[in-house]
User: Fold this.
Amino acid sequence: MTQPTPASLFRGTRVELSRDESSATLALFNPPHGYFDAQSEREFLEAFDLIDAQADIRIVIVTGHDPGVFVRHYDVGVLARRGRTLVERDLRFSPQAPPTESGFHRCTARLASPERISVAAINGWCMGGGLELALACHLRYAQNGDYRLGLPEVELGLIPGGGGTQRLGWAVGHARALEMLLRGTCVEPAEATRIGLVHALVPDAVAHARAVARQLARRAPGALAHLVRLNQAAREADEGAGMTLERGAFAELLRSPHALQRMEDFNAGHQPFPDLNTVVQKS
Assistant:
């Protein structure tokens, strides 16, 4: 049976929103690199406001607009500027005194909400903030391809700052997550599937996500929402405290001389992740 063509609801400079029956698709883009940045945050939240205004949209699919890239990672140039601003203004944070939630945290919170089922259709490079967006989704499907998924922030003298330190462990197990975080390990799609980082490896992530969305749309909305809430309840107490500690630790490291130098090297075109090719795990 031929499926209807998705109808466009919004297109900005970073996000395109379309809907297909009971699902909406957020396609993310920022050529040439596919970084997420402050403008991405604004358009992502604007698109979600449009979704909230349509009660019959029950599933949200997040994917990359351009072939081979979901979200490569958060824009390191933006992070470097924020780090320098902290130094210039002598703003200091710590795990015990964290900053308030950022626009990126609001994006992941919208995805993690039980009000709608969120599905990450990972169709390409998905590292750092890109993987944190995917980890905030309730379901994750990876497309066959030559790309990597991981949280390599430690190579920049940083830690994941958008929930990655907490949610990775719930996906792959806390022992495996700790090793991946300490080593900055990035994995191929098949390995991501084997370790539970994604739920399935498929030929076409968006097509598969839409097929799942059509199946879920036939389920009772209240039942789906309760299933998500109950699943989250098992970890929310620890995760909430962990998220707060993560925000503080990230902000503390963001202004550190080591991280600032590493980010400057990245933005100058130097290879920032020297171990990326040697710390790739394959199935």
About this structure: The longest helix spans residues 236-254. Confidence is low (pLDDT under 50) at residues 274-280. The first strand starts at residue 7 and ends at 11.
